[in-house]
C-alpha cells in the first residue's frame, strides 16, 4: 500500500476518473427516475388489478422495480462513457490534422 503513494497519476487517468464519476452520477439520477416511474404503476396495479393482486407478490414487485432501476443505471452510464470516449477520439483526430 505504501508503494502506491509514490506513484504519480497521469492526466489521462484523472480525466478517466472524472468521466467515470460523471457516468455514475448520471446513472444514479436516471435509476432514481426510472425506479419511481415504474414503482407507481406497479404498486397501484397490484392493488387494483385482480390478476396482479393474485399473481404478483412482494418479491415480484420488488424485482420489477429493481430491474427498471438497474437497466436505467447501466444504459445511462454506458451512454455517458461512450459519449466521452467518442469526444476523446474526435479530439485526438482534430489534433493530428
TrEMBL record:
UniProt entry keywords in alphabetical sequence: Membrane, Transmembrane, Transmembrane helix
Highest taxon of the lineage: Eukaryota
One Pfam entry name: ENOD93
InterPro entries: Enod93 (IPR005050)
Chain ranges passing through the membrane: 31-52, 58-77
PANTHER family: EARLY NODULIN-93, EARLY NODULIN-LIKE PROTEIN
Name of this protein: Early nodulin
Originating organism: Zizania palustris (Northern wild rice)
Taxonomic lineage from the root: Eukaryota, Viridiplantae, Streptophyta, Embryophyta, Tracheophyta
